[in-house]
Amino acid sequence: MTKHRPSGRAGDSASPRPGLCAALLAGLILAFLPTAPVSAQDRTPLLMEDKETLFQRVLSRPGAVLRSQPVATADVANARVPTFTVFYVFDRKVVDGTEWLEVGQPERGPTEGWIAADQSIEWKQSIVVSFTNPSERERTLMFEDRQSLIDLLESELLLPESRELRQQAIDGTLPADSPVISIEPAEHIDITQQFYLLPILEAESAWLASGFRSRILEVASVPLNSSPMVSDGPSPEEALRDFKVGIVFVIDTTISMGPFIERTREAVQRISARVGDSEIADRVSFGMVAYRDNIEIAPELEYTTRVYAPLQLDQPVDAFLSEIGDVGPAEVSSRGFNEDAIAGLSEAISMGSWGDFGGRYIILITDAGPRAGNDPFAFLDLGPAEINHEADQRNIAIYTLHLLSEAGTGNHDYARQAYREISAYSQETNLYFDVPAASVDRFGQVVDSLTDSIINGVQASLDGELLEREVAGEDAIVDQTQLVGRAMQLAYLGRQLGTQAPDVFEAWLADRDFTDPRRAALDVRVLLTKNQLSDLSDVLNAVLETGESAATSPDEFFGQLRSAVARLANDPNAVVDADNLGDLLGEYLEDLPYQSQLMEIDEQTWLSMSPGAQREVLDNIRYKLRFYRRLHDQVDLWVALYDGSPEGETVFPVPLDALP
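Predicted structure:
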């Protein structure tokens, strides 16, 4: 397979421009890029205080007005500035005691007018948060001020008081003096489908009464293109009745898998018999992807991946069974014990029909570990975490049914760790299940239990009911599937009902669930432009290539990296001393409440690492580069923050753990 790098900045075939807004690698990129002439219509925003690379930005408050000059009586340039519009600040002036900001949206001008400083909010970071799916936790409360939230967190009555406040918010009975001003919606808002800004304005740590640490955050909140809800739209119960489920089996079809392929086929036949001509028959669709291993090293295997049955809306189960009738095991052995499960999963995730379904499930069935991107025989440069991210972007749950055969005893620990990473669905839900002794009977029971649980969720949706969170029972796969099913129902309702983030101006909230602090209420993301993602890829590729070339002499890594950055900038005189990778990665990360592990690596740490640990760092960079390339090419994920935004300035909220 030919492996490629991103094609570069969108809509920009010339050399990179010097000004990038606050991105993860802004410091490195800006420090080393050449400076172009600046015209009156091509200006650079003001830098943040004590920063050399980060530009000042503000969010507009409700009622903000743009004027042609920095005086209240000047002509109006734009009297209808949407709330929380992101502006760069190009100049500041104080006129008659009032501070004015000259602002514009493109980071290289032209400017659009002047806005009074008190009609804006300083936004110092590009870090934002999104709500996690509330299926496994209580809904998040939003507080009017910091002290009210701190007082509650430190109260011995945290749980009963928060329950009372939450119920008042749900019932719409909050008293006028309540510290709570809003509550997270009941439905899940998928930020990749219903984009909204929840920028962090301030952040600090606090300790809950339970002993857990929580971060408390001041945020500004507004959906993009906010509009009133349609009063005569469907109710949640009515919307749920159209809930449909897609299930794609991804099956290892190497020589040892024959009995399990047949038992999977039997499980689908049982579903077919159960569903039959019932009212849920047209609400469940199946697909199947088979995988083996890289045919470049074993051509006799016939294929690396093969789609036997694409996932299609309203496809009869009988038609699916006909399409998979000739699925069978390979007749020759592959090289080594690991097989290319990640290639098979990638094929399934890439199916274009997932958007037709509310419930989205992949069931991986294998007796061997996956070839990760650091395996020289892997088909793709993707690791377990990256394939999990790709599934998460599409709200797909990956179940792994791992057959613990005697022949694979030495492979079990590696495979278990990799598949648990692939099948992580939330902090508390993991969809990895092993089948001891690779028993065909036990495997059949697991497949039946899993598919029955999914079908039960379809029936509940048809009845207009949300799956309830119940006390854990004896069957873990049923419990987990119920939680996943409820999460998918809430995400589906959020999409169908157009649920938006609370239309709150500014509020304080905690990033953990009060009732169960192990559960995160918020996902942390960094708002990157498409151009910034390309720059990020370029710089990380330089780090990777330098690390590869210095593998035999680790003591030369930092010196070679500085030279590589100079070559990237085409300006050897721009090289700066870097005590650690954080110095190269940029000052943007210095003030963030969430830190990057890569930032901590200095020359001494690098030299003290074993070759295996150094290889792990480089492998993680390689996996992320592949993920960035695929993210860059998914046009439908990128959002324009303002009218006329060029492609390179569209944004995507990248999960923090997907960054270096």
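Summary: Residues 440-462 form the longest helix (23 residues).
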